[in-house]
């Protein structure tokens, strides 16, 4: 299949002044050579967004929402193509890619139905006070490589619904889905409203420090989030930062081990462990420690690794070379500081494959436990009791998600209430949707995404205060 290779700048699909070679992480074969922006093309995208913004805002909420709905329909029509591109550039199994594409459409459709009505807080013979929300201007959306369609679309939709215009910049190893979203947008939105540019990991600073950019919405690592905050400080840019995580699952002694092992395995190894909201460390009560370790290890050992387009594949490759090196590094840490009971090996061949790996008899203080491994390498730590698990889970600079597993709802809830993370699940992990707000605590982020809470972050609150 020939995929989109062109960028969208000012309503036109254009070649780049440079090119970017996209590799299939399962084979390292070239999937496509796509456009890559020069600095002047990135600046042209910001300039086009700036020119287009006032008319787009004037068009009105309902008209913008109608166009977003048309956009959701068009994404649905191109869903098979998007899913295949996603597997080829990102590596995830086709069923996971299809799931991401249907979420991409669902997020756009959900946003199209949201409003932020004017609030009248006083209206009497003395005066009238209205609180309204206005667009900010040009929004830059920067995304990582793990969810190449959902993350850009979930930034685009609320930004433009609120009357802003956008410049999207995907990760250099997975640009094709974002370029396709740009191509689809070209036939629906006026020129300049949506722009998509790619880079070689070198245009982020230019875009996030540009004086004509009012807001940056970023998903990626905490280290890059810090740079973006620094870059935005000169012009006090509005920021939404969805950053790294090191989600803990605290498993109490009253669980049904086999059923819980299924869910924990899925939530840890989904997308080969490369999900911000994946379980990255398991704290298991000593009473069920060994049986849970064995049950999760059995699932990891049985998992079928392969190319995402093969029907039998349950776990795909690591997405890129740097991340592959990281995964191997964390396997070595597991070997040194714990006991590997499943996986621990690289699959022979050209692709970036490691077997799903489970490590027991490991402690806090190991880099595999303390850092965000973002790989299919799961440490399981023995805890004395629920309080011990809670204290260990909270001893982290991150606070994206966390979960408590117990058959006693009251017991689970009392631990859940004290977990320091933006999302806390009970007896599940990784469940999310456009109707659920998403925020990171501590150094996992700033701001909120999705729902009206997230939509409001693409607006400026403005008060009209009249006196009679
Ligand atoms: P990354 O921070 O290296 O890159 C993310 C994006 O930022 C890429 O598009 C990259 O080109 C761009 N970038 C790089 N330097 C930049 C700079 N100086 N200024 C602006 N942009 C710059 O992250 P990654 O390795 O692509 O993704 C993995 C990370 O993303 C993990 O830490 C993961 O937890 C995080 N993540 C978070 C969420 C969330 O919602 N919290 C979701 C997915 C991924």
Amount of beta strand: 15-25%
Distance between the termini: 66 Å
Compounds present?
nicotinamide-adenine-dinucleotide
Low-confidence sequence ranges: none
Radius of gyration: 23 Å
Protein name: Aldehyde dehydrogenase family protein
Active site: 242
Pfam families: Aldedh
Keywords: Oxidoreductase
Features:
38% helix; seven-stranded mixed β-sheet; oxidoreductase; binds nicotinamide-adenine-dinucleotide; globular; 2 domains; 468 residues; Aldehyde Dehydrogenase, Chain A, domain 1; Aldehyde Dehydrogenase, Chain A, domain 2; 24 strands; six-stranded mixed β-sheet; 15 helices; Aldehyde_DH_dom; alpha/beta
Q: Care to describe what's here?
A:
The chain has a seven-stranded mixed sheet with strand order 14-15-16-13-12-18-19, with helices on both faces. The longest helix has 20 residues. The protein is globular. The chain is of the alpha/beta class. The chain starts with 6 loop residues before the first strand and ends with a strand. The chain is built from 15 helices and 24 strands. Helix 3 crosses helix 4 and helix 9 packs across helix 10. It has two domains: 261 residues, Aldehyde Dehydrogenase, Chain A, domain 1 (3-Layer(aba) Sandwich), CATH 3.40.605; 187 residues, 3-Layer(aba) Sandwich (Aldehyde Dehydrogenase, Chain A, domain 2), CATH 3.40.309. The structure holds nicotinamide-adenine-dinucleotide (NAD).
């Amino acid at each position: 299949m020939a995929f989109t290779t062109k960028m969208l700048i000012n309503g036109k699909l254009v070649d780049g002044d440079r090119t970017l070679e996209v590799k299939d992480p399962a084979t390292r074969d070239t999937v496509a050579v796509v456009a890559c922006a020069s600095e002047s093309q990135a600046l042209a995208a910001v300039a086009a967004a700036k020119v287009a913004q006032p008319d787009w805002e004037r068009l009105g909420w309902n008209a913008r929402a109608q166009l977003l709905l048309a956009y959701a329909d068009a994404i649905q029509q191109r869903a098979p193509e998007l899913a295949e591109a996603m597997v080829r550039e990102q590596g995830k199994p086709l069923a996971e890619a299809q799931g991401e594409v249907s979420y991409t459409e669902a997020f756009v459709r959900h946003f199209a139905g949201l409003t932020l009505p004017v609030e009248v807080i006083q209206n009497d013979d003395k005066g009238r006070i209205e609180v309204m929300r206005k667009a900010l201007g040009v929004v830059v959306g920067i995304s990582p490589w793990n969810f190449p369609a959902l993350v850009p679309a979930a930034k685009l939709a609320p930004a433009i619904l609120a009357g802003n215009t956008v410049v999207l910049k995907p990760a250099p190893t997975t640009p094709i889905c974002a370029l396709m979203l740009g191509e689809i947008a070209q036939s629906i939105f006026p020129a300049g409203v949506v722009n998509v540019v790619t880079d070689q990991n070198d245009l982020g600073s230019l875009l996030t420090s540009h004086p004509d950019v009012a807001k940056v919405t970023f998903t990626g690592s905490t280290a890059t989030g810090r740079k973006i905050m620094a870059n935005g400080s000169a012009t006090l840019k509005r920021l939404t930062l969805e950053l790294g995580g090191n989600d803990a699952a605290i498993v109490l002694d009253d669980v049904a081990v086999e059923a819980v092992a299924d869910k924990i395995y899925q939530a840890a190894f989904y997308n080969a462990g490369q999900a911000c909201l994946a379980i990255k460390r398991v704290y298991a009560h000593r009473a069920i420690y060994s049986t849970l370790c064995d049950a999760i290890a059995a699932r990891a050992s049985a998992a079928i690794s392969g190319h995402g387009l093969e029907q039998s594949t349950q776990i795909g490759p690591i997405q890129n070379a740097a991340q592959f090196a990281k995964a191997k590094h964390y396997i070595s840490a597991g070997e040194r500081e714990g006991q590997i009971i499943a996986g621990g090996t690289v699959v022979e061949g050209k692709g970036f494959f490691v077997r799903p790996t489970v490590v027991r008899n490991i402690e806090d203080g190991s880099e595999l436990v303390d850092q965000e491994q973002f790989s299919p390498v799961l440490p399981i730590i023995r805890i004395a009791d629920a309080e011990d698990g809670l204290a260990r889970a909270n001893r982290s600079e991150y606070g994206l998600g966390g979960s408590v597993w117990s058959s006693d709802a009251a017991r689970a809830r009392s631990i859940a209430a004290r977990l320091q993370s933006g999302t806390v699940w009970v007896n599940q992990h990784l469940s999310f949707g456009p109707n659920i707000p998403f925020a990171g605590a501590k150094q996992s982020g700033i701001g909120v995404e999705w729902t009206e809470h997230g939509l409001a972050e693409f607006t400026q609150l403005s008060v009209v205060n009249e006196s009679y």
